[in-house]
Amino acid sequence: MKRVLIVHYGEIGLKKANKDYFVKKLQKSIKMRLEQKFRETFSVRYTLGRILVVLSDKFVEAEYVEVLRKIFGVKNYKFTYVGSTEVKKLEKQIWDNMPDFEDRPGTFRVKVKRSMILPYKSAEAEREIGAYLIDSGIDMKVKLKGPEFTSDVELFNNIGYFSYKTYRGQGGLSPNSQSKLVSLISSGIDSPVASYQMMRRGARVIFVHFHGYPYTDKDEMHQSKEIVEMLSEYQFDTKMYLIPFGEIQKTIATNSDVPAKIRTVLYRRLMLRIAESIAKKERAKGLVTGDNFGQVASQTPENMFAIHEASSIPLYQPLISLDKEDVIRIAEKLGTFEISKLPCKDSCSMFMPKHPELKANIYDLRKIEENLPIDDWVASSVESGEIVYF
Ligand code: ATP
Ligand code: MG
Fold first, then answer.
1. Nearest to 74 by CA among 219, 164, 185, 173
2. Do residues 208 and 243 lie in contact, with contact meaning Cβ atoms separated by under 8 Å?
3. Which of 153, 250, 339, 372 has the fewest CB atoms within 10 Å of its CB?
4. Which residues have C-beta atoms less than 6 Å from ligand 1?
5. What pTM was estimated for this model as a whole?
6. Nearest ligand by distance to the CA of 198
7. Where in the chain are all domains bearing CATH 3.30.2130.30?
8. For 130-161, what is each residue's pLDDT tens digit?
9. How far apart are CA 39 and CA 49, in angstroms?
């Protein structure tokens, strides 16, 4: 039987005048990702609120899942059979193609949705198909709410598309459907998740990583590159800036006019300024960090105030109110946790004070910064940064 992949979108459907734009982006993303993976041309059609892809005879479901599970904007998807709209024919087709269950579910229901005019109601078709499956020997109890197994039918375009499993997608908005943002990414647990969250909202994220090399080894840089490579599978055209930061940190750490405890906040202010300069160069509309309210010394309200003051463009912190466990759960699902948890010396733990300031004062900071070549550092950092593409 002919097979067709049906993709449903979620929040995009709530858009009004802009809906076409988001649907087209999603359609194009699905096409590009499938073509990249299978190296053949795909026809990806849009019809009646669904995206349809005709599948080749010998398609392997798991290989398609691997692609679709990483596309934002997808609410769910199913690998359907192209069946009849006549209930008598359809129910037989459904029975004949029933999958082999390794573990037979105990309960089932038939779910019919239609977007075409038919001489019968959806509920009538559900009952009739359900009765047929029972008579044929499906050996499961009917359960309308929360069944273990659903025999699904969508009736439209004069076809009865039926399937036996609905996969959940990532949700969110289509990849690269919003403007660029610059994300400050460490090799830690939080910032990869923060970047992922903003990509999920459609932003195209450009990454900036500050490394301590040659004062640290290259492990940390490799770790952050590995993380960005993983994240690059969720958007198109990923770009990453690797900015040497060790020299600046060392200069600050060895300056006797700079109190040790204020260093962390100074480093962070500098990072934001450099990232802002990159954002301007890239025409990005804001910055992203993995900051989390109250988690570490640099994240007290006073220090957040002092740090943010250094940036004049919007700063997005999608993890601000999450518990660490919540973030770890997302990082585990995403796969970045495995890399982030590896021990490595990052540029931030280097040249760090033993007792960091918890309530930095903005006037003191400004006074200290007046005697530091901040603008030169920002310009030279951006200039000496290495750019990597994924
Ligand atoms: P993360 O797990 O993301 O490192 P964290 O909880 O360890 O976060 P901090 O180390 O204080 O918190 O960093 C706060 C934020 O500053 C990070 O989420 C990240 O956005 C940014 N940041 C920290 N270090 C770096 C770095 N070396 N390069 C780029 N951004 C960084
Ligand atoms: Mg960190």
1. 173
2. yes
3. 250
4. 184-186, 188-191, 208-210, 271, 289-292, 295-296, 298, 346-348
5. 0.94
6. 1
7. 3-168
8. 999 999 999 999 999 999 999 999 999 999 99
9. 27
Cβ count within 10 A of residue 323: 11
The residue whose C-alpha atom lies closest to atom 10 belonging to ligand 1 is: 348
Q: Residue 240 is inside which H or E element, if any?
A: strand 239-244
Q: Where in the chain is the domain with CATH 3.40.50.620?
A: 180-389
Ligand nearest, relative to CA of residue 289? 1
Regarding predicted confidence, which is higher, 298 or 109? 109
- 37 CA distance to ligand 1 centroid (A)? 33
Q: How many angstroms separate the alpha carbon of residue 257 from the centre of ligand 1?
A: 26
**Cβ(153)–Cβ(82) below 8 Å:** no
C-beta atoms surrounding 209 within 10 Å: 27
CA of 137 to the centre of ligand 1 (A): 58
Task: Decide: residue 226, CB within 10 A, 0-12 exposed, 13-18 middle, 19+ buried.
Answer: middle
Distance from Cα 217 to the centre of ligand 1, integer Å: 18
H or E segment at 126?
helix 122-136
C-alpha 30 to ligand 1 mean position (Å): 32
Rounded Cα distance between 35 and 40, Å, is 5
Cα separation, 152 vs 162, whole angstroms: 5
Does residue 93 have a pLDDT over 60?
yes
CATH 3.40.50.620 fits 180-389, yes or no: yes
Q: Write the CB contacts of 373 (distance below 8 Å, at least 6 apart in sequence).
A: none
**Residue with the nearest Cα to atom 6 of ligand 1?**
190
Q: What is the distance in A from the centroid of ligand 2 to the CA of 349?
A: 8
Residue nearest to ligand 1 atom 25, measured at CA: 186
CATH assignment of 3-168?
3.30.2130.30
Q: Which ligand is nearest to the CA of 295?
A: 1
Structure tokens, 56: 């080749």
Q: How far apart are the C-alpha atoms of 316 and 288, rounded to whole Å? A: 5
